[in-house]
Specification:
32% helix, three-stranded mixed sheet, 91 residues
Length: 91
């Protein structure tokens, strides 16, 4: 059994990894941000845990959109963001 704690906002991610989303990207990430990480609604977007640092992406168009925003900054991110897909069946 794994334990994950925390919920990082787009702004907290920017500060932690030393880069900036565009205003439009930040706004869209806030719309796709899944605050409680249960993903019971299926394709809901993304959630990033604080401990351990891990980005969960829902496996669908909304999750893929969020992942594309993160990937657009891969050359600017200082450090490693581990990421993986999650869907209702994975829980």
């Amino acid at each position: 059994m794994s334990i994950y704690l925390g919920c990082l906002s787009p702004e907290q991610i920017e500060r932690r990894y030393g880069f900036s989303f565009t205003d439009d990207e930040r706004k869209r990430l806030r719309e796709l941000w899944h605050h409680n990480a249960d993903f019971d609604d299926g394709d809901t977007g993304w959630h990033m845990f604080d401990m351990p640092e891990f980005l969960f992406i829902s496996d669908g168009p909304l999750g893929h959109e969020a992942l594309a925003i993160f990937q657009a900054h891969s050359d600017e991110i200082h450090g490693l963001i581990r990421a993986g897909y999650i869907c209702k069946e994975d829980k």
